[in-house]
Amino acid sequence: MLDTARIGQPACLVVAVGRDDTAVLITLTGRQLNAAMTIVAAVKEAENEPLLRQSGADQVVVSADTAGRMLALSTIEPAAGAVLTRLAGRNLGLIEWPAGPAEIGRPATDSGAGTIAVVRDSSVLALDDPRTGQIEPGDRLVRVSAGGAGGTRR
């Protein structure tokens, strides 16, 4: 089935299945067929996250932990919980945006409305992180966007 999906070509593989052991096997197979693609996988239990990363997943979402964080945040900070719920739903989204010529050299905190993080050399840096400093060539800006699940703009 993975051959039918042309998984051997550079691509992104999203693994979201009902069992963590199945997610590990799909990730291992996908990584074997295409070493260069990005693999994002979901697991239910946190103890399986390291195994999934060892199997080749670039990003792992632990559904039980994520739901727990959303519930806790909604209890302690209801407005922040509502925003996070909207981000997870369809009302708000996140996009990655390449830093433009007008942004390069400026402080990250001045990078525009909705910017919440900078991606630099595969590291995600919060705007208030001292390492962020000024926007550099090659940086990508993570911004909150209205009306959608988000995505990557290239």
Task: Explain what you see.
The protein is α/β, with parallel strands linked by helices and 154 residues long. It folds into two domains: 1-88, 3-Layer(aba) Sandwich (Rossmann fold); 90-152, Regulator of K+ conductance, C-terminal domain (Alpha-Beta Plaits). The chain is 29% helix and 27% strand. It has four helices and eight strands. The protein has helices at residues 20-33, 49-54, 63-76, 78-88, and strands spanning 12-15, 38-43, 59-62, 92-98, 115-120, 123-126, 140-146, 150-152. The strands form two sheets. The protein has a five-stranded mixed β-sheet. Helix 3 packs antiparallel against helix 4. The longest helix is centred in the first third of the chain and has 14 residues, at 20-33. The two termini are 29 Å apart. The mean pLDDT is 84.
Which features would summarize this protein structure in a list?
alpha/beta; Rossmann fold; three-stranded parallel sheet; 154 residues; five-stranded mixed sheet; 29% helix; 2 domains
